[in-house]
Description:
It is a single chain. This protein is mainly α. The protein has one domain. Helices cover 57% and strands 0% of the residues. The chain has seven helices and no strands. The chain has helices spanning 3-9, 15-21, 25-36, 45-49, 53-62, 67-83, 110-121. The longest helix has 17 residues, at 67-83.
Amino acid sequence: ASLQTRFDSxxxxxxxxxxxxxxxxxxxxxxxLGLAGKEDGFSRSNDFGFLNPRDVAAFVEKHKGSAxxxxxxxxxxxxxxxxxxxxxxxxxxxxxxxxxxxSTPSTVPKRLRMASLERTLS
Length: 122
């Protein structure tokens, strides 16, 4: 889909998405203030979803809140990012290129096998 199509399709109110993810009004105001410079900076999913992921990651890193709040900010960003037709990029939700998704069966890394063998032998 074209950029215009993706932008237009993501031009929906961000509030329902924030409620689904569990971002409180106070936390959202802090996000808007930190990234947009005003408390009501992002009202649509595409406003937040098309931000540079590095800017969002830098904000999350310096945010003084709990790890749970940081996770919720990251999840909200990736949900908005996905609404814009873009893949997840935040640490909490993205998979490393070439790595299986966490729920995908995979082979056990060699180090883990060796550590298990060591424990068995001792």
